[in-house]
Amino acid sequence: MKVQRILVLAGWLVNAPSALAARDQVVLADPASNKVTKNVAIIGAGSAGSSTAYFLRKFSQERDISLNITVYERDGHIGGRSTTVGVYDDEQNPVELGASIFVEVNHNLVDAAKEFNLSTSGIREFSTEGPVLGIWNGKNFVYMQYSGGSWWDTAKLFWKYGLAPLKTVRLMKATVGKFLKMYEEPYFPWKSLSQVAYVLGLTAATASTGEQFLDQNGIGKLFAQDIIQASTRVNYAQNLPLIHGLEAMVCMATDGAQAIEGGNWQIFSNMLAASHATVLLNRTVSKVERQEDASYIVSATNSESSVTFDQQPFDEVVLAGPYQYSRIDFDPQPRHLPDPIPYVQLHVTLFTSKHKLSPRAFNLSSDEVVPQVILTTLPTGEHHGSNREGVGSPGFFSISLLRPSMDTREGRDELEYLYKIFSPAPLNETFMANILGLPANRAISKADVSWMYRKVWNSYPYEYPRVTFEELQLDDGLWYTAGIESFISTMETSSLMGKNIARLMVDAWEG
């Protein structure tokens, strides 16, 4: 077992405009078969919505159930938070803006990538010069890892942290092993997330903060603060005294980290294609009205013109996104209303520059090389951070030098570098000048930063400790996927919730 694997942190760094076009043809039942056709509306074409459609089709075909699926998506692309943008505004040069990677224990995503023959790539180290990873506490680097994870890296790890790295790997595997049982009978499909989490012993992890959970399991505070907290910050912008223990362990499950070439959104585009759903992009669902026969009328508007033009009846409706952001008028109100969930507001900044990161900005000597990826933690004694959202002394959550980039616009042919930064607030010119080693008293020019793209996400919930989670059904025939967000917030768990709800629906139809 290679201990250094735990340092390939799971969120190494956090749609495409060329999304799947809406299908014109609806899958119709065979009139001669006398089957009753089920009509399902899915609101949202991210991981949860696409997976619900995909598994609904799969399970219904296994049971020979006739099915029509309509997917409404308010944006013009499929994938939700899994989305790419074009470097230099060139769609042929995509870079992930949202959900960046998945790992080998993400069974739904890994299986889908294989089924749809999508090309994957691992995390790339494009340079062997200097460290590939550094963990910065605002004052100095508390850890550095070099290319390939040498024996010397491992020796330094044990010298500084004792057996904590090994204990962390064991605890992570035991915890993730319990979670993986949620995919299997007799636990799958589960009607209550709270119940299955309790039965599998996962509430022991969700009931505690990451700090408490690690301490209870004998993992030293220094390793937790330096290494594990760097992972929770890059993945969820949260420190260990805030985030619950299960999510902290998920951050350390990093084996087989990979991404789809050209963008992870392709998994969900292919899922929708395989589901034979009618996909309606730029459609905002404005109203869901329950009828006396327990069916639902779904009203949608054009996201750009706000003109209501679509009203269709459905047997079942799946809300595949957070209730609090849906802005849907439910008439009457569902029997169960989800509690509002506080979401992290994360600023993602992509930019290109001819400058490498400045050693001076990180208290290194001028002849030292700045790590390719910089994760952050808090210095000893600074438990929650002294400024916005607990970011603390470092001022940001991560900086990644993603890859070299050739700027060919207007015949320039200049070699630059593509960077991504996660932060709790917009980056100002003083910050940019500092990390690029530029004078602080002059404005940053196009010659210094040739291209920039900013995005603000409600990226994931604050994963506060808890032992109960939202219901899967808001009412009869009205399903809800986002309840899993406070349990584990990933592309994979959203997909798992979609699969679980699809199975429950089909089982009920057959019964």
From TrEMBL:
Signal peptide start-end: 1-21
The protein's required cofactors: FAD
Pfam families recorded: NAD_binding_8, Prenylcys_lyase
Keywords, ordered alphabetically: FAD, Flavoprotein, Glycoprotein, Oxidoreductase, Signal
Keyword NADP applies: no
Domain Prenylcysteine lyase: 147-510
Family annotation (Gene3D superfamilies): FAD/NAD(P)-binding domain
Annotated family: Belongs to the prenylcysteine oxidase family.
PANTHER family, sorted: FARNESYLCYSTEINE LYASE, PRENYLCYSTEINE LYASE DOMAIN-CONTAINING PROTEIN
Protein name (Swiss-Prot/TrEMBL): Prenylcysteine lyase domain-containing protein
Source organism (scientific name): Aureobasidium pullulans (Black yeast)
